[in-house]
User: Fold this.
Amino acid sequence: MRFSQLIAALQQGEAGLQAHHLGSDPVLAGAASIDKAAADQISFLEKGSALASQLETSAVGAVLLPDQDDLKQLADRRGLAWAVLRDPRLGFAETLEQLHPAPRATAGIHPSAVIGKRVELGAGVSIGPHVCIADGSRIGAYTVLHPGVVIYADVEIADGCEVHANAVLHPGSRLQQGCVVHSGAVIGSEGFGFVPTAKGWRKMPQTGLVVLEAGVEVGCGSTIDRPSVGETRIGAGTKIDNLVQIGHGVETGKGCALASQVGIAGGAKLGNGVILAGQVGVANRAQIGDGAIASSKSGIHGEVAKGEVVSGYPAISNRSGCAAQPPSPSSPNWLSRSEICARRSRPSGQKPSRLGNLPSSTCCP
Assistant:
């Protein structure tokens, strides 16, 4: 693809093309970061990027830029092809789509697929090898089921969805238009519901629905549990990373982002646009307001207000939490477990080497 062809595509995109210079109109074979790009590749820089200095020496053939005169002048001086966009990162995403268009699945049903009774298949579906679809399920038009996908009974998949290899959709799963479920993910598995009795744990039947609204994407190995009654609902446009656990009865708003190893306990509610970084834990029935952000490894109990940014365990607001955090191992006040034990066993009157007086509550088993 020549740079001029890419410019024509960006003019139709959402990144906000503002200006461009074709230079030698290079042929683009791919894309790379600015510090590693070759002459037949394109890269991008954002405003304030730490990599901006790399533009001086980079071998890149073309670059997407923010509206900064110094960067445009440097690109001109080096004879590079460039484009200025309102959102260079979005423009780079659109560029990758042009350079590496997703292959279209061929419509049809592989001979090894097993299709149950009363299954409804929409026009143009693509059903790969060893796919199993149980009785009475519905698959929407132009949906793609990759090899090894298992669709239980009472599953409904709307138009234009894609379910990758070895994913499993249990009874009560409902996928709205344009959802993507990646390899090994499990939708609608039984929620963790048991009733304690004198004879042990009694299973609570999980009979509700799991609803993925339009445009939801679920990463590899993630699980979204079915509730005993009612719904587990994932809001439209929400993106879920690999290895995320979402418990029964959870509700998320639209456009949330859940990073890897997030765990959300049953009945929790997330507002619109909530961001949970890696390994965040959300307790049973916790509530998180619209636009809130939790940093990695935060533990959320109770409520998080709209727009709040929280960290730590238990999670507290970043606005007030820094002073409350305990010292880290790099802090001069940090006491290791062995140092605490040594301090407590030191004979009376012996001066510590660097440890101050410890509070009387400090102890070692």
Summary: Confidence is low (pLDDT under 50) at residues 352-365. The domain at 167-321 is CATH 2.160.10.10 (UDP N-Acetylglucosamine Acyltransferase; domain 1). The chain has three domains: 3-99, 167-321, 333-365. Residues 88-99 form the longest helix (12 residues).
